[in-house]
């Protein structure tokens, strides 16, 4: 049975006067992978940055509409954005481990700064997160060296571990493989499939094969508008909208 | 033909000036090392100065005094400087930069060009006069002001150099805004800020002029931070202009020790910069 | 920065307070200098700057001889330092290999790192005897007909101050000039060489001409440093309140008179006169610095993409 974890309702977003999202509504189902596709500049990244309220840190950025997480609007006045971001983790386009911290600290810092003091708990959670991200075998002997010495793919999995340590319910991936080689990409994709057992996942990608490989649902955005949302195989085989068809057959973008 | 000759002459002169500056450094350092080593003894590091006319003694109080002064100045100047740097970096990234921050940036630029002797008499008027005595506090106040522009500017620039993605990664982990700034962004900027602090410390370690009427110097151990205190550069100055041969020797020994300390600090700052690049 | 909670607001208030303290200190510096020199202003006014009598016994203070000393010692320093600094800067930007550049930049930072008091010590015990025994008699023998080289060679005099200062400002002038030269676009140089110019002609036409403003800025910055320099000058200039055209004559500068006499200034007027000299130094160096930075900035930015 499909359970809705997140519901994006009539969401619009602006940078200063420039509107980048126009009245977008998408349901996000629990323990499924939802892909968001569309040509560059269509508002994909902005959309997921609205889901963890990261959009609003840009000066003059504005949001209207609702994002319901388990039925509660995260834009309600009594909601602390920090709490939202703990529940909704994010992995960025460029691997961005904290450069002056060790591998261990990169994963531990989120726990420490969110008030967890028990050393044992921290260590256990960190090791688990690194294991879950599939990095453990590669780094178990250098947990206390700098994360910046890892390869790009390893750095990205370190960033995933950093997010996992906080036990998020939803994980947002913002083109996580665009800076990686094919082998690292495959590893991340396998990891995403593994993670959806316990998490709800949204992935922004401009790689259509990737969307087809990892996602169950796909939303196609064009010029800030939601053109089509459907199960992934429907989008790729029988798109309803002409523009979706043009995009997936490579006619533009 | 004439053009070729002029070309050769000018190129020769350009090369010569490069060689000349190495030569000048060599004779200055050469003298300090030669004269310094021949005057240096264990006593220099463990004994107080002897009364006028007596041979021997050392500068242990001045060496300790210098470290005390530098430590005290760092203690107040680093927090103020780094936090001011945070403020400046923050305000330039916000939607509308304040006029106050442009004014402050300009004033800090002005301050960095003010001669250190002028800072010295300022500290005298503000601290020595009301307290009615020379003190380590007044000396550190003056030295701290000299450090302030360097520290603030490097802090601001290093914070601005931290990629946006680092800030976003931290916020996305649900880490508070202030914790993000303090534990993540400052942590990332730390090597650069540390280098700036060390460069400022290397400079104030050798400063003499601002201490003349503030720390004043002391031939004995300082009794408290609210009284006069000895400093290595002050002692070198006093001994250099004295008429006694033995004191001249001690001045050279002091110069050698001082320059080694200063170069050591510069060396460490370079190492830090290279390590994190 | 979006919605911040209480702790965030507190933290940013703290940074604001720190910034305000920095601001207040600088403003206070200015205010104290003006306040403390008030007495001297009311007594001597601007006449202070054009009279040369400096006599604590009769309470007459005029700064002209120190202004003269500062100006001449600094100009002398520029005269010696500028050609050499420009040579070094050109060597670094046009000739040196990467390794050599690295090496010279270390040499420069070592030279710049030597504390002023050590330059003074070296000046007293190494430079002054050489000047007194060899260089000054030699100069006198050849140029003795000029007023600049007349009188008894002391060694601790205007010439010594000029030489010490020239060494001290060389790292400043050369490193900034180097930056300015390096900001000249490569295609200007290539155009010069393509026209069949020799390397020096290319430097003269393409590099020096384009970088002129910035180089002047670097020189002015060096001048500002020379005027504000205290300890080394105080130790070698001889400290005599007289105006003499001879470079072999001891003299005093604005900075050196403060260093020498502040501690023994007993009367309020005496102290106030010294503060007024401090205020003068403040203004002169600040104006020179601002002017220099504007010039440097305008050249190095012009060619940035």
Mind explaining what this structure looks like?
- The complex is a heterotrimer of chains A (253), B (277) and C (305).
- Chain A has 10 helices and 10 strands.
- The longest helix of chain A has 14 residues, at 119-132.
- In chain A, the strands form 2 sheets. In chain A, strands 6-7-8-3-9-10 form a 6-stranded mixed sheet, sandwiched between helices. In chain A, strands 2-1-4-5 form a 4-stranded antiparallel sheet, covered by helices on one side.
- Chain A has helices at residues 44-51, 81-87, 103-113, 119-132, 136-139, 152-164, 182-195, 208-214, 232-237, 242-248, and strands spanning 4-15, 18-29, 33-37, 61-69, 72-73, 88-91, 170-174, 200-204, 217-222, 225-231.
- Chain B is globular, with a radius of gyration of 23 Å.
- The longest helix of chain B is centred in the first third of the chain and has 38 residues, at 2-39.
- In chain B, helix 1 (2-39) crosses helix 10.
- Chain B has 10 helices and no strands.
- Chain C contains 11 helices and 2 strands, in the order ααββααααααααα.
- Chain C has helices spanning 6-36, 38-44, 64-95, 98-113, 116-143, 158-182, 186-194, 199-228, 231-236, 254-261, 268-302, and strands at residues 54-55, 60-61.
- In chain C, helix 7 (186-194) packs across helix 8 (199-228).
- The model of chain C has no long low-confidence stretch (mean pLDDT 92).
- Chains in contact: A-B, A-C, B-C.
- Chains B and C meet through helix 1, helix 3, helix 4, helix 5 and helix 6 of B and helix 1, helix 3, helix 4, helix 5 and helix 6 of C.
Annotation keywords:
heterotrimer; A: 253 residues; alpha/beta; Rossmann fold; 6-stranded mixed sheet; 4-stranded antiparallel sheet; B: 277 residues; mainly alpha; MetI-like fold; 10 helices; 77% helix
CATH fold name of chain C: MetI-like fold
The computed structural class of chain A is: alpha/beta
Mean pLDDT of chain A: 93
CATH class of chain C: Mainly Alpha
**CATH level-four homologous superfamily name of chain C:** MetI-like
Question: Could you say which overall geometry of chain A the principal axes of the C-alpha atoms support?
Answer: globular
Helix content of chain A: 25-40%
Question: Helix share of residues of chain C?
Answer: over 70%
Ends apart, CA distance between termini of chain C = 30 Å
**Approximately how much beta-strand content do the residues of chain A carry?**
25-35%
């Amino acid at each position: 049975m499909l359970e809705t974890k997140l519901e994006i309702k009539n969401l619009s977003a602006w940078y200063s006067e420039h509107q980048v999202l126009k009245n977008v509504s998408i349901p996000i189902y629990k323990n499924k992978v939802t892909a968001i596709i569309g040509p560059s500049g269509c508002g994909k990244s902005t959309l997921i940055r609205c889901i963890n309220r990261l959009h609003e840190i840009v000066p003059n950025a504005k949001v209207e509409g609702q994002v319901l997480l388990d039925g509660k609007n995260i834009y309600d006045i009594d909601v602390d954005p920090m709490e939202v971001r703990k529940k909704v983790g994010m992995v960025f386009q460029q691997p961005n481990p904290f450069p002056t911290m060790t591998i261990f600290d990169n994963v531990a810092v989120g726990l420490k700064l969110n008030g967890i003091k028990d050393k044992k708990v921290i260590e256990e959670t960190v090791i688990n997160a690194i294991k879950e991200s599939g990095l453990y075998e590669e780094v178990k002997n250098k947990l206390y060296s700098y994360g910046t010495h890892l390869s790009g793919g390893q750095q990205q999995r370190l960033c995933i571990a950093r997010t996992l340590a906080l036990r998020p319910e939803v994980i947002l991936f913002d083109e996580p493989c665009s800076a990686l080689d094919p082998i690292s990409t495959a590893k991340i994709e396998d990891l995403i499939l593994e993670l959806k057992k316990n998490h709800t996942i949204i992935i922004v990608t401009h790689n259509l094969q990737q969307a087809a490989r990892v996602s169950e649902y796909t939303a196609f955005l064009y010029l800030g508008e939601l053109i089509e949302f459907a199960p992934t195989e429907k989008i790729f085989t029988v798109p309803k909208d002409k523009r979706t068809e043009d995009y997936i057959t490579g006619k533009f973008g | 033909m004439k053009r070729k000759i002029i070309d050769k002459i000018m190129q020769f002169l350009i090369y010569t000036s490069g060689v000349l500056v190495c030569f000048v450094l060599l004779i200055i350092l050469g003298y300090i090392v030669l004269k310094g080593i021949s005057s240096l003894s264990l006593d220099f590091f463990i004994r107080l100065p002897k009364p006028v006319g007596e041979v021997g003694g050392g500068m242990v109080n001045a060496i300790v005094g210098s470290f005390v002064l530098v430590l005290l100045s760092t203690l107040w100047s680093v927090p103020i400087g780094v936090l001011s740097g945070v403020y400046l970096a923050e305000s330039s990234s916000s939607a509308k930069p304040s006029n106050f921050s442009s004014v402050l940036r300009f004033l800090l630029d002005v301050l960095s060009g003010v001669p250190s002797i002028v800072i010295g008499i300022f500290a005298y008027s503000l601290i020595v006069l009301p307290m009615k005595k020379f003190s380590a506090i007044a000396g550190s106040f003056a030295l701290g002001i000299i450090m302030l522009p360097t520290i603030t500017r490097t802090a601001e620039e290093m914070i601005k150099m931290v990629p946006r993605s680092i800030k976003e990664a931290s916020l996305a982990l649900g880490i508070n805004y202030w914790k993000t700034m303090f534990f993540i962004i400052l942590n990332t900027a730390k090597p650069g800020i540390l280098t700036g602090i060390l460069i400022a410390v290397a400079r104030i370690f050798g400063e003499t002029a601002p201490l003349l009427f503030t720390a004043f110097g002391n031939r004995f151990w300082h009794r408290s931070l609210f009284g006069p205190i000895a400093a290595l550069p002050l002692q070198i100055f006093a001994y250099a202009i004295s008429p006694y041969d033995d004191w001249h020797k001690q001045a050279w020994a002091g110069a050698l020790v001082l320059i080694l300390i200063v170069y050591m600090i510069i060396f460490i700052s370079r190492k830090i910069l290279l390590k994190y690049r | 920065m979006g919605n911040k909670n209480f702790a965030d607001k507190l933290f940013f208030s703290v940074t604001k307070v720190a910034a305000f303290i920095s601001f207040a200190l600088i403003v206070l510096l200015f205010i104290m200098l003006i306040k403390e020199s008030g007495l001297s202003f009311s007594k001597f006014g601007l006449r202070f700057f054009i009279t040369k009598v400096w006599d604590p016994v009769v309470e007459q203070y005029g700064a002209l001889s120190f202004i003269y000393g500062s100006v001449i010692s600094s100009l002398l320093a520029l005269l010696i330092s500028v050609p050499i600094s420009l040579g070094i800067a050109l060597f670094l930007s046009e000739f040196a290999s990467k390794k050599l550049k690295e090496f010279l930049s270390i040499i420069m930072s070592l030279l710049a790192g030597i504390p002023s008091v050590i330059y003074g010590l070296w000046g007293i015990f190494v430079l002054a005897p050489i000047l007194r025994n060899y260089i000054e008699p030699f100069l006198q023998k050849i140029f003795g007909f000029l007023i600049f080289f007349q009188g008894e060679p002391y060694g601790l005099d205007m010439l010594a101050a000029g030489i010490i200062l020239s060494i001290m400002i060389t790292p400043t002038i050369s490193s900034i000039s180097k930056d300015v030269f390096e900001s000249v676009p490569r295609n200007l140089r290539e155009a010069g060489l393509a026209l069949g110019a020799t390397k020096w002609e290319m430097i003269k036409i393409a590099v020096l001409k384009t970088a002129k403003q910035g180089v002047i800025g670097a020189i002015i910055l060096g001048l500002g440093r020379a005027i504000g320099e205290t300890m080394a000058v105080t130790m070698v200039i001889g400290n005599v309140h007289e105006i003499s055209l001879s470079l072999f004559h001891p003299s005093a500068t604005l900075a050196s008179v403060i260093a020498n006499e502040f501690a023994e200034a007993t009367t309020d007027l005496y102290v106030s006169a010294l503060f007024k000299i401090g205020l003068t130094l403040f203004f002169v160096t600040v104006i020179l610095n601002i002017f220099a930075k504007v010039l440097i900035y305008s050249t190095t930015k012009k060619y940035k993409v």
